[in-house]
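Researcher: I'm comparing several assemblies side by side, and this is the next one on my list. It has 229 residues spread over two chains. Same procedure as the others: predict the full complex and return the structure.
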Amino acid sequence: KAGVTQTPRYLIKTRGQQVTLSCSPISGHRSVSWYQQTPGQGLQFLFEYFSETQRNKGNFPGRFSGRQFSNSRSEMNVSTLELGDSALYLCASSLAGTSGLEQFFGPGTRLTVL
Amino acid sequence: QKEVEQDPGPLSVPEGAIVSLNCTYSNSAFQYFMWYRQYSRKGPELLMYTYSSGNKEDGRFTAQVDKSSKYISLFIRDSQPSDSATYLCAMRQGYSGGGADGLTFGKGTHLIIQP
């Protein structure tokens, strides 16, 4: 079974631009969560989507947004990029029900903002 | 005070040693506790999870949760060089049943197993 895939793997943008990252969950997984990982703050929860609806949201500004499609694929968007947005963005998928406790992470997208 | 505290290390031990990794937390509402392993340039990989207090064993790995002390541990027996990675603890509050809520992570401990 294929794992979680994220595209692109690496991205370089300049301040003020916007960026869209993509995540394809494991087949059959309906929940997709996004996390930001930085050396200073570690892994921080951004938001979680289940059946195309945002179920939970972390403490990030409105510049960070996401969506989920009917096939469970998800995208996250960051507008008006700031230098501090440079990070590894990780997507994780899980099944519905009690198995949702087990989140499977993709390799991440490394975003560099110049 | 951070919700979850974890010593970043690095923690360096010889091959074959027993490794002890720990996290403390402040939010008494946490009920589910996980340990993830992350290799360089990879996403985190779930090792095991436990609910509430107690022990759980899986092969060379044992997870312990002491909710009264707000302290969790991961023990690795017969450590191997391939165990060298960053180990992240994670936890969350009650489970709603409809999907996965956000996890709160420690910053991770960098573990080095010397051959």
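Model: For your comparison table: Residues 46 and 55 of chain B are 17 Å apart (CA to CA).
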